[in-house]
Amino acid sequence: MTQVPHWLIRLADQSQRLSVPRYLRPPDGRGRRAAVLMLFGEGPYGPDVLLIQRSRRGRRHPGQPAFPGGGVDPEDGGPVEAALREAEEETGADPRGVHVLGTLPELYLHHSDNRVTPVVAWWREPSAVHAASPDEVDSVERVPIAELVDPANRFTLRLPTGIAGPAFQVRGMLVWGFTAMVLDRTLGAGGLDQPWDTSRVTEMPPESLTARRV
């Protein structure tokens, strides 16, 4: 069992005060409720976060790295329960070893019409993880925070539409879109961010275009 680190406590304390960009603010009366689990832990290479690579055969964001998560079902009782359930279904993570610290403000994804609540948690007792739902998940990775904040792994990614945002190249994954935006903001709020060259712009690779729906 490991103790919650100070940086994660600070992030949880600030979670509901994080600013939400106008384009991510949920509209009144629209959107399907969803939740994702931002599960931080102490791994073999220091603090890390659990990410999945979605299946290219899947219906939701095919081929895109993401936090485990999905829709909030009526029987879930709320976003926390939904995030834990989805993480267990997708990665096998045992929810009994997860300590939930709080939630971030609800964010709206226009393309999928989802109102997503990121749930911040500490992996108090890590369990083995794998692609537990092959139809939805290709692989599961515990990505070290040190690799995410390394300036060499960070850049601005520009989509064919001209829209650009933060991105990470870690563990053979191109992390972009919603997941990259949330990571960018939460790493900064936790005081872990390092200065990086935001003017370094990379075009979306052709092989990733099938995962353009964010």
TrEMBL record:
Enzyme class: hydrolase
Gene Ontology MF term list: 8-oxo-7,8-dihydrodeoxyguanosine triphosphate pyrophosphatase activity
Renumbered residue ranges of the record's region Disordered: 59-78
Cofactor: Mg(2+); Mn(2+)
EC number(s) from the headed UniProt entry: 3.6.1.55
UniProt keyword list: Hydrolase, Magnesium, Manganese, Metal-binding
Superkingdom of origin: Bacteria
Gene3D superfamilies membership: Nucleoside Triphosphate Pyrophosphohydrolase
Pfam families in alphabetical order: NUDIX
PROSITE patterns: NUDIX
Domain Nudix hydrolase: 30-165
Protein name: CoA pyrophosphatase
